[in-house]
Amino acid sequence: MRRLIVNADDFGLHEAVNRGILAAHTAGIVSSASLMAGGAAFDEAVRLAGECPRLGVGVHLTLVGARPILPVAEVSSLVDETGSLFGSYPLFIKRLLRGKICLAEVERELAAQIDRIRMAGIRPSHLDSHQHLHVLPGIGGIVLDLARRFSIRAIRIPAEPVAFIGATPATVGRLAGRGGLTLLANLFRQQAAAAGIRTTDHFYGMLAGGQLTESAILAILRRLPPGDSELMTHPGFADESLADTYRWGYQWEAERQALAAPAVRALLAERQIRLISFREL
């Protein structure tokens, strides 16, 4: 049996992302989303989630590229001179390795993010994180403790097979980054299993992150192995303010269209792949 979670990241980041996720759920194959507690469009995302009871909603834990939930004075090791969380994951990792990140502040900030989502009336289906920082040594243990504290049963393991290329052209740098992430994620999988936290068996979408095309989705579905898999996606609508604010090179509009493509839905049916959310693990 093949079961697939199609998860849309960055729910709450921007109105165009929210609308894209909603469209990719109602007209496409998205079955799950990860909500950013500090996202500028958080309130709208919560409202939309309430209108979509079949959409699983988890927490997109965020330690970079946003504003903290807690007052800046309480998370001083996590923020820059403007009071924002550090802008990039390499900078965060460098500071973490140098002992400049206070892990107690990480725990409090992430707990506040989960609590904000719970207080909005959402029971989180799972935990994952922006830039996959939850699999880092030192951070992973905190996240697992929080999962147990808040009775969250599942967590993302972003371990894409290192031999998988699919239909996505990849630079040497992205291939190397994917390899490192997969190594860390597989180590974290062992910790999650020991903690009794549920995970999928397989993960896809790292190499094509932000650039997921119809052909890439079809390539993944054709080789999807038996068991439970997650496909990470980033749907949205074309929006000038979104592109100007988040210069990540993501093709939100193209991903939304690909996730609703008739050929994608037909291949799901042909291969008898069942769409689920993390709630069903």
Overall description:
- Helix content is 40%, strand content 13%.
- It has 281 residues and is an alpha/beta fold.
- It has one domain: TIM Barrel.
- Strands 1, 2, 3, 4, 5, 6 and 7 form a seven-stranded parallel β-sheet that branches.
- It starts with a strand and ends in a 5-residue tail after the last strand.
- The mean pLDDT is 95.
Descriptive labels:
single chain, 281 residues, alpha/beta, TIM Barrel, 7-stranded parallel β-sheet, 10 helices, 7 strands, 40% helix
List strands and helices in order, with pairings.
Blueprint (H helix, E strand, L loop, with lengths): L1 E10 L3 H12 L5 E4 L6 H9 L5 E6 L27 H9 L5 H17 L7 E3 L9 H11 L22 H23 L7 E3 L9 H9 L4 E7 L6 H6 L6 H8 L2 H9 L2 E4 L5
Parallel strand pairs: 1-2, 1-6, 1-7, 2-3, 3-4, 5-6
Helix pairs in contact: 1-9, 4-5, 7-10
Number of helices: 10
Tell me about the biggest sheet? 7 strands, parallel
The CATH architecture classification is Alpha-Beta Barrel
* Helical/strand content category: alpha/beta
Question: Which value, in Å, is the CA radius of gyration?
Answer: 18 Å
| Helix percent band | 40-55%
Structural domains: how many: 1
Q: Percent of residues in beta strands?
A: 5-15%
* Number of β-strand runs: 7
CATH topology: TIM Barrel
Low-confidence stretches: none
Report how far apart the termini are: 13 Å
CATH class: Alpha Beta
Q: What is the string of SSEs from the N terminus onward?
A: EHEHEHHEHHEHEHHHE
CATH homologous superfamily classification:
Glycoside hydrolase/deacetylase
Task: Specify the oligomeric state.
Answer: single chain
Shape: globular
